[in-house]
């Protein structure tokens, strides 16, 4: 692991890709750094957590530059309530996430409080909730400069009604890296809340595996980086749990 990434609180996954595991819910945030732009993947559970991520990212991006793009993998509080800390960025999410935010800011606030977020902090983050400007219905390629491209893919529904994954292509610097959101979880059993679509979840994982391939590194929404075999096993478990093929 390169000292620059480690010193800034990131786990280095490739020369231009890293992630960190946030305290509390072991939630993953990712960072992809290009020559002219940088992409943050998920924003944490509140404004304070988002600000920490912003500061850590700036140390890696360097040169006085900052995060320019933010991808939200799904509309759950621990992944989105920190988004307002990234002022001025281009925000991406799966089609329909904007409707969830427009109608469900109060539910996000309440869910955060139920999980232990201070009521005042949860209310402030919900009031400032950032609505994605760019809505992904299929696939969307972002060019971050310096030959660094990422693919945003709407593979859901599954864990939620609006699941977005981020693929960083591999090459000489290493294998493909797939940020899975909570379609994949390693540090606990996959959670199926009221907005989950169990009948479609295995198919979402099939698409995720198709995008990444056998040799990719899969970064779950919670927990350690896993391989394709882990994702296939979790797919089988979910299919059996929900009685779908």
Automatic annotation (TrEMBL):
InterPro entries: Metallo-B-lactamas (IPR001279), NDM-1-like (IPR050855), RibonucZ/Hydroxyglut_hydro (IPR036866). SMART domains: Lactamase_B. SUPFAM superfamilies: Metallo-hydrolase/oxidoreductase (SSF56281). It holds the Pfam family Lactamase_B. Residues 26-222 form the Metallo-beta-lactamase domain. It comes from the Bacteria. Transmembrane segments: none annotated. This is MBL fold metallo-hydrolase. It comes from Streptomyces anatolicus.
């Amino acid at each position: 692991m390169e000292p620059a990434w480690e010193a800034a609180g990131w786990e280095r996954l490739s020369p231009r890709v890293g992630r960190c595991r946030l305290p509390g819910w072991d939630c993953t945030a990712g960072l992809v750094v290009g020559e002219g732009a940088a992409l943050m993947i998920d924003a944490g559970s509140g404004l304070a957590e988002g600000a920490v991520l912003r500061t850590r990212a700036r140390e890696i991006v360097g040169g006085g530059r900052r995060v320019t793009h933010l991808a939200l993998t799904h509309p759950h509080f621990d992944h989105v309530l920190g988004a307002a800390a990234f002022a001025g960025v281009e925000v991406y999410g799966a089609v329909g996430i904007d409707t969830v935010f427009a109608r469900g800011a109060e539910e996000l606030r309440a869910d955060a409080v139920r999980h232990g977020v201070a009521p005042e902090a949860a209310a402030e983050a919900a009031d400032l909730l950032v609505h994605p400007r760019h809505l992904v219905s299929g696939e969307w390629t972002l060019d971050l400069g310096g030959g660094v491209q990422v693919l945003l893919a709407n593979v859901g529904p599954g864990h939620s009604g609006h699941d977005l994954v981020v693929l960083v292509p591999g090459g000489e610097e290493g294998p493909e890296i797939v940020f899975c959101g909570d379609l994949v979880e390693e540090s606990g059993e996959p959670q199926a809340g009221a907005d989950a679509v169990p009948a479609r979840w295995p198919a979402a994982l099939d698409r995720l595996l198709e995008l990444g391939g056998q040799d990719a590194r899969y970064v779950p929404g919670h927990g350690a980086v896993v391989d394709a075999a882990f994702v296939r096993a979790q797919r089988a478990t979910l299919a059996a749990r929900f009685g779908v093929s």
